[in-house]
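Protocol step 6 of 9: fold each sequence in the batch and record its C-alpha cells directly after the sequence line. For illustration, a two-sequence batch is reproduced in full.

Sequence one:
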Amino acid sequence: MQLVIFGPPGVGKGTLSDMLASKYKIPHISTGDIFRAEIKSGNSEFVQYVEKGLLVPDSVVNKVIEKALKQENFKNGFVLDGYPRTTEQAEFLENVLWKLKKKIDLVLNLVASEDEIIKRLTARRNCGKCGALYNLITMKPKKKDICGKCGSPLVQRKDDEPETVRKRIQVYQQETAPLIDYYKKKKILIDIDASPKPKEVFNSAADAVERKIPKQQ
C-alpha cells in the first residue's frame, strides 16, 4: 500500500502519517527527515542550496526521494508525507514507482481553515537543545516554557510566527493547487477534514483507506 498525505503547514500531516503507518504496518517517509539526513551526511549537491537559503531544485529533491524509495524497508509500501509538491514531482514519482512495479493507491488531502492552521502553528514550541516538540494547545510542557526532556528553554521558530505562517500557506496553495487537480483527475484523491482532534482525523482517514483499498486490509 502506497499512501501520500497532502496538506498545508501545521495541518497534522506528520501525526496522521505516523498513525496510519502504525495501523497498516508500513513505514512513514517524512521528506523533512530525509532532507535532514542528507544534510547530516554532507550531500554537497543538497547542502549548497540549504546553506544559501535557496529553494532546492526538483532535480535534486527527486534524486534524494528516488534513493529513499529504493531502500529495502519500503518494498511493502509506505506513507509519504511532504512530497510531491509540484506536478513535475508527481510525474517523477509515478515513473519511479512504475519502475519498482508500484503505484500510489490513495492521496489523502488534509483540509483546515487558515485561522485553524495559524492557531496551531503559532502555538508550537521546540527545544533549542534537544529538538523536542510541544504545542501550547494540544501538547503543553509540564513546566511553562521548559523542555520536559532536557530542562532547556522552549522557543518559537521564526517560521511559526503569524505573518510567516500566512506566507507559508499562500506558497503552499499556489504550489499545490495544480497538484490536487492532477490527483483528482486520477480519482485517487480524497479530502479529509483536519479540524477535529487527531484521533477523529485518523478514523476518517482510515475509513477512506479501507473504502478505497479494501483488498489490502
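Sequence two, same batch, same settings:
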Amino acid sequence: MNLLEIKDLTIRFDTEAGSVHAVNGVSLSIEQGETLGLVGETGAGKTTTALGILRLIPDPGKIVGGSILYKGEDILAKSEKEVLDIRGNEISMIFQDPMTALNPVMTVGAQVLEVIEQHERCTPEEARRKTVSILGKVGIREERVDDYPHQFSGGMKQRVVIAIALACNPKLLLADEPTTALDVTIQAQVMHMINELKKEFSTSMLLITHDLGIVAASCDKVAIMYAGAIVECGTLEDIFDHGAHPYTLGLFGSLPRLDVKVDRLTPIDGLMPDPMDLPQGCAFHPRCPRATDVCRAENPGAAELSPGHQVRCHLASTHPGP
C-alpha cells in the first residue's frame, strides 16, 4: 500500500479579480522509503500541492476537490485536531526559504524543542536531550543550541529547518526546494545530509525542485508539473531516458550537456499561462512546437506508455522521446 496517495487534487484561490486555478486534478503516490521528485517552473503549483497535503493552504485558497490518502485515510476528512497530530509528527515540511522560516526571537533550540513538546510525552530534560541530539545530527554543536537564527549562516539556518522537520522522526518529509538561496557547495552538503537522514529514519520524501541534477541524484520517481497539472510521471529512468511530453523534452533541451556539442541551448518559447486564464485544451499548447488543432481544443487524458510511466499529451505515442 502507498504511504501517500493523492487523487485528483484541485485547489482554487477565489479573489476579487477572479479564480486562480492553482492545482488542477493532481494525482501522485509515494511508497514507504521512496523519494518522488516534483519538478516544474516557478508558479506551476508545486508548493501549493505540498501545502495542500498538510492542509495549510492560505486564505483565500481552498481545496475544492480530490482526496489525500495517508496510510489509507483521507486527510481532508479529518478534524483539525487530528491534522495537528499528523502535522510535524507523521508528516513534516522543510519550507522553501530558511531566512524566513525560522522565528527570529526564539533560539534555534527552542524552535526544535517546541515540536518535540507538541507531539511527544517526555520530561523537559528528555526533550532537551532530544533537541541537542537532532541538532547534532545536522551538524550544529551543543554550544550553539541557545543561539538565535541571525547568528547562523544561510546554510546553517537550513540545517536548523531540517532538524525541526525531522525532530519527531516523520514518516513523510515534504522538502520544498531545500537548497534555494544556497551556494553550490552548500547545496551538495545539504542534499547529502537530507538523503543520509532519510535513510537513517526510513523516511519517504516529496522533493520539490526545479533542479534536474538534484532529482537525478536523489529521486526514485519523478513527476513533471505544468500549470497546476502533472503532465508526465514515471521512474527516474522513464523521465530522463524516455521522456515523452514536449514540456519534459523542453526542460532537458534547455540544459547544457557534456556529451553533446551545441552552439546554443534550446529554450522553451513563451511563458507559463496565467492561472486565472488557462488556455483551452492542453495548457502547454501555446508554447509547444508540435501543437495541433486537437491540442488546442481538447485537454489530453493520461496515457500509460509503459507500466507506471504516464504522460498527458495527444502526440506522446506518435512522438516518443529519446
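Proceed to step 7 once all outputs are recorded. Observation for sequence two: The chain has a mean pLDDT of 91.
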